[in-house]
Fold:
Amino acid sequence: MSSTLSYVPLSSSVNPSFWSKLTELKLDIYKLNEVEQHIWGYSELINNPNCPLSLVEIDSTSFNTCAYGQNMNLLFHGKLINTNTIERFREYDKTQLINDFGVQLQEKLKNGEALRNPSVLNCFILLSFADIKKFHYYYWFAFPVPKGVNIINITTHKIISEFNNDLLQKFLASFKNLDNTQNGYFALFLKNNEIELNTLEFTYDKLPSTDSEIYFGFYNTAKGSKVGTQLRNFVLHILHYCPFLENKEVKFVAITLSRGKSEIHLKDSMIHVLKLPKLDPNVYSSWVGWEKNERDKLGPRFANMRTSLDPSVIAENSVDLNLKLMKWNLLPSIDLEKLKKTKCLLFGAGTLGCSVARTLLGWGIRNVTFVDNATVSFSNPVRQSLFTYQDSVEAKPKAQAAADGLKLIFPGVNSKGYHMNIPMPGHTVGQSFIEQTTADVRKLIELIEEHDVMFLLMDSRESRWLPTLLGANQKKLVVNAALGFDSYLIMRHGIHNEITNKSLLPHPEGFKCILGNNLGCYFCNDVTAPGDSMKHRTLDQQCTVTRPGVSQIAGALAAELAVSLLQHTDGVSAPAFYTSCNQNSNNLNMENLNPSILGIVPHSIRGFLSSFEQFLPATEKYKNCVACSDLIINEYRQKGIEFLFKVFGSSKHLEDVALLTEMYKEMEMEEILEFSDGEDVGGSSVG
Structure:
């Protein structure tokens, strides 16, 4: 007996990799964009007897530009709309959304796209909200079908009642040759016990003139004698191109592929004789298909992927969350890839080294190397954030402990530690240590060559000399940080022999400017060479005794200064703006000032915690500087390690090469100049 055809709706299945990929795309590509995105879905063609439903699955490959070419999959075209807020997700006009699909399908029928590619009849909508901070995902699938298409089922019987085994084999062979844009909907021509499988485009051209028996074929997403809801879209397709079939009885083959003992077969497929309806002119304006949730109610679903996603994927996406959010509105032009690839070399793994490293990690820096010659003591962990009590117990080398500490915070960081001494002026090298010192110098040169940015974060003035010279020689970005009890100094070094034709830039009231090629180094304000600052010092004078917050402030500013330079179009040669007193720059007009995208880039930052003040002094290059002058660099280039060992033996050799000795004689100041290496921050006063 004939009856109204009933349908089995499709069900969705979301692979966890889909949410991982969506999170990545939301952060890097989609951002605040709620524009519809095309995605792919797939359904297995071979019947799974253990699964009562046909599932449309999406995964990370759903975002590919092209669908992967698996002929044994039924292809689904999806439309993803990922909202920015949960409120937007809840309030979205879902009726309008699904009805819009009908208008779009009608257009595809008119322009022939649906004829050439009938897989567009298999479609879905995915409305979602991704709370990427918590890895919570709210989503709702719809598989749109027209509401007003009432098909009458005249009879239903198994395919084997009309097709013998030979025909079924030919049918199966032809079906396997269809690609996944055609295998969902096609036609069969049967004549004189011969079967011919054709695309719809070919079939409609031959109707109604053919004398062959015509079967319209579709892959059935339901089981047994029932049919999937997508058949309604197929009927819409047929009647658009063949309106003369309205109110006519038409044969349909509902394909079911089953796996037998040795081969795949079509014996479970069904033939339906259906009476096609007369379409209402408004059929394209009213659509249904929103999926029911786990409680069998019309409503969205929820996926908590915090424990399901791969930990490394979670970590990689999470650590850069703040940075990627910056790109949405605040800093759309920031180059995060450049930061990720930048290699930072930290001389000193103490209080400053730990603070700088943590801030660099927050900026997305993934390559950090520490150099230090000390071990972790019991007084360190409370002030130095990368160490633990256990590191103190084991007296771990600071450089390696700091590198390990960074990896505990984020396993994806490439951190290394080198436990080694930095040879210093005025620290004579004994005969037995010449070989080791030579090896240390060569290793320092190698490390500086391999890295992009150097941070000088040591306790003493003289330990900064050799890295300063080597950094200037190799034209590296060098950032220096030094501490007093309640004061700090952060500065960047100029680049040796850097030539520029730029003129002085305009600057706001209260600010002045020095071109980047004319900036001094840490030693440019001194007229004496660094010596052994540990002589005649008590314990409190040998250690860096500071207020606990000073190192955190200085470490953060050092890292921020380096990042600002890395984001500046002129890089290390960026001009420096400076002040002679505290200057409020919050409301500065930055136009035409050639700033970094992060603001103006100073030469140095001097702060005083006792008065909570900070200003931006600057120093021009000093032609007789004992570290970065042409005199010193040329001497090093000519004599290499021989020159260095003379300096290690006596810092006075630096004064001779830099012509400071002659200057003393000319000024007759030898007897009245007393130089002190006092607090480190005072060792290079700039202003």
Observations:
- Residues 536-542, 670-687 have pLDDT under 50 and may be disordered.
- The two ends are 100 Å apart (CA to CA).
- DSSP finds 21 helices and 29 strands in the chain.
- The first helix runs from residue 16 to 30.
